[in-house]
Amino acid sequence: MLWRHKRMHKILIVDDEMIFRKYLQKMYPWESYGFELCGEASDGIEALERIEQIVPDIALIDINMPVIDGLQLSQTIKERYPGIAIVLITGHSEFEYAKRAVKIGVEDYILKPFDKNELLTVLIRIKERFDRLKAEKSSEKDYNQFMKERLLNLIISNETTGNDETTKQSLENFGIRVNSLTFCVAVIEIDNMYQKWTTANEIILWKYAVCNIAAEILESEENPILFYGPEGRIIVLFEFKRRHEDKQSGFDCFTRLCTQVKNYLKFSVTVGIGNPIYGISAIRDSYMESLEALQSKVIAGVGRVIRYAEIELEYKNIGFYSSAIHEKLGINLRLRDWEEIKKGLEEVFQFIRDKQLSVDYTNAVIMGLISICLSYLSEHGYEIEDVLGSDFSPGKQLRNKESLDEAFSNVEELYLKVMGFSNKNKFTKSRKLIDSAREYIEINYNDNNLRVEQIAQKLFVTSSYLRKVFKKDLNLTVGDYITDIRMQKAKELLGKGNIRVAAISEMVGFCDATHFSKSFKKRFGLPPSEYENSLK
């Protein structure tokens, strides 16, 4: 693992007095506070040249300078580099100077002579704002990735709430452009994944490695979309340029993927590819075909690419049980619905009996059933050995079984054990939804138009369901939770001082400062101004 040093915030000093520049340089142990003095300038023209070269985070600027004064320089900097924070240092205390500085967008205004702590307090406040914005951007990026993956998984499971047009708009909101509406799905599966690794971290690490190789190989293809799907698989969604384009011959990129994974990671992956389809709602059909293609690897062999079009011709007389059964088993495991799980398992067992499958094929089918359980544990962050014991091995579930009935009974016991553990350690769908909603509110609380309908739409659920889940799990309405977050943020801002109540009101998502003050008093027992004074 590579360790990175925490990023220093760069400061440029602009003052025509060399003595004052030297004084500032020696004023603090700058690096101890997370700052780096990256340069200095004696006038406005030199300052602009230096800024173009180094682009500092903060500029300390004296107002009285020749050629271009500090206010003019600040205005130019804000026009060209709006992300640079400016602190003006001056001997002028006139109101007009301060008024102009605020209008330009200067972060703060310090009068000479000033206390060492005064300037340091201002700089640390700016640094904290930069750090907070960076953290928010990172959190928002992670959240957007999670929501994009959630939408794509809803599409392959055909659980989106709108029609093709609304789903297309949702995809485009995440930067996924949809043009021809002709798609094809490929599914990448690590062979014998749960026999190789038993910890969730190991599985995540190797899936990530495969995904990186796939992303690199597929870079030359037309707009492939990679995301993690159910049961530890990696899904690739292609859109063709033209509706009737024959892309099947162009999937040799997956053969390269199989080869590179084998060479570099020393294990094999198999890729199942469905037929091309037209329309977003038909993506699931291609996805289900790709799963059926994967099922055939017990006959066709692992570590290769298998197209559904091929197995339709080669293995049509053998027959494969529906991949939808796996999907239902996964869903019912999450719901902890034993009756439905038992029905699904019996359907698979009956398929094995009716088709009189070979030992190898039977073992592969049973291994698939075991993988659903292990995938469920892994997805929820449970260590397999914590649930099933340190001596558990998927292979042991198949070895030394004297009859099919004994093997089937063993699989049922495994599902009961996993379901029992899940009941004791609930990680419900509603809890995941609440966590997603809370994260969205944390990012968007300053939007005065934030409503439960908007949050529900972003999470692809109905507003009534979101209200119900919040009330049941948190004993709070969504509106109360939004208000609570806004009040906590307002309290933090008031604690920093030097920010007007009206400005704070706007920063935390209130349109009306009076309404904000009433809400704050109701929450904390004091109006904002009195609360701020109590901290001094």
UniProtKB/TrEMBL annotation:
Give all residue intervals belonging to the HTH araC/xylS-type domain: 435-534
Instruction: State the Gene Ontology terms under molecular function.
Output: DNA-binding transcription factor activity; sequence-specific DNA binding
Which keywords does UniProt give here?
Cytoplasm, DNA-binding, Phosphoprotein, Transcription, Transcription regulation, Two-component regulatory system
Q: What Gene Ontology biological process does one annotation of this record name?
A: phosphorelay signal transduction system
Which parts of the sequence belong to the Response regulatory domain?
10-127
Highest taxon above the source species: Bacteria
**Which SMART domains does UniProt cross-reference here?**
HTH_ARAC, REC
Which Gene Ontology cellular component annotation is one that this UniProt entry carries?
A: cytoplasm
Q: Where in the cell is it found?
A: Cytoplasm
Q: Does the keyword Secreted apply?
A: no
4-aspartylphosphate PTM positions read D62
Q: What's the protein name?
A: Response regulator
Q: Which organism is it from?
A: Paenibacillus psychroresistens
